[in-house]
Amino acid sequence: MSLILAKTYHLAGGIYDLMLSCLGNSRAAYEPIASNTASSSVIGAVRIVVQAANLDNIMGSKPSVIMRVQGRPETSTTVGKSKVPEQTLHSSYFLVYSLEEQIEFQVLKRYGFLDAGTAGKMMVSLKHLETEPTRMGREEGIFKSTNKGSKRKGSLLLDMFYYPILQVPTCSNTGIVTLRIGQAKGLLAEGTDIHSEKKHSKLMVVTRMDWTSQPIHKSHEAYDVDEPSWNCSFDFLCFDKSSTTIVMKIVSKRWNGTHVEYGHVSLALNELVQADRDELGWWPLSGFPNGRLQVTADWKPIELHQDNIYKE
C-alpha cells in the first residue's frame, strides 16, 4: 500500500489542488508541498487525520472534505467510504509557518462521483499544538451560515499531530527541504544566434522528485537565454532523505506553445544538502558541455517516523 493515504487531485470551485499526490504500490519517500511563503520562516509540519465525517439529516451522501491552511491555495481532499459512520481515515500534511494559522475545512455533500454543494465549514486553530502537539479523537462541529445565523450541520472526528523543526543535531531522515534555484549559464552552443534564441525562448526550471512524478515546482519564466536568472525558492516535506532524488529540467516555452528541454540536473538529495557551499551550488547540466545550474538546499529535520504514519 502507498505510504500516504488517499492522496488525490481535486478541483473545487476553480481552485487547483496544489497538494501533489503520492500514489502507487511502492512506499512513497516524500510528500512535496510547494510553497511561495518565505522559506526561512517554516517552523514545522502538521498532519491531520480525518477519521470520520458525519452529516446530520442527509441520507445517502458520502461527504468529501477539503482542507487548506487559511490564505493558501494548496488543498487536500478526502472522500467518505461508508455510510454509518462516514469513515474516511485520511491523512494530510501541511507545512507550518506560524502557529497563528488556521486550518479551514469545507465539507461537501457527495453522491457517487458528484459533489452536491457545501454542507458546512469549520476552522481549527493551530495555536493549541504548541502545548499539545498530539490531539486525537477530537470532534469538531460543522456549521453553515444561513439568514438566521449559523446552523450546525454535522461533525468531523479529527486527529492532529505537530512536528516542529528540531533545533539540535539529529540523525532523523525525515525533514523539510528548502530548495533554492539561482541561475544557469552556458546554455548556448557555439555559433548559436543569441538574438534569435532570445526572441523565441522563455526558460523555466521544472522540479520533480524523480523521473516519472508530477512536478512539485515550476519557476517563473526567464527571458535571458544566455544566463537566465530565477532566484526562487520553495519548501517540501521529505519522508526519506536517503532515497530521494531531485530532478530539475530547464525547459524552453516557444512562441507556438511547444516545449524544448535545454538540459537537466539529477541529484541525490543527500548529495545536494551536503554540498560544499564554497562551490556556490553550481552543478553540471546534462546535455550541454559548458552548461551549469545553480541550486542549493537546506535540510531542517523533524521527528516523524514512517512506521507511525497511518496506512490503508
UniProtKB/TrEMBL annotation:
<feature type="domain" description="C2">
    <location>
        <begin position="152"/>
        <end position="283"/>
    </location>
</feature>
<dbReference type="InterPro" id="IPR052455">
    <property type="entry name" value="Tricalbin_domain"/>
</dbReference>
<dbReference type="Pfam" id="PF00168">
    <property type="entry name" value="C2"/>
</dbReference>
<protein>
    <recommendedName>
        <fullName>C2 domain-containing protein</fullName>
    </recommendedName>
</protein>
<dbReference type="InterPro" id="IPR035892">
    <property type="entry name" value="C2_domain_sf"/>
</dbReference>
<dbReference type="InterPro" id="IPR000008">
    <property type="entry name" value="C2_dom"/>
</dbReference>
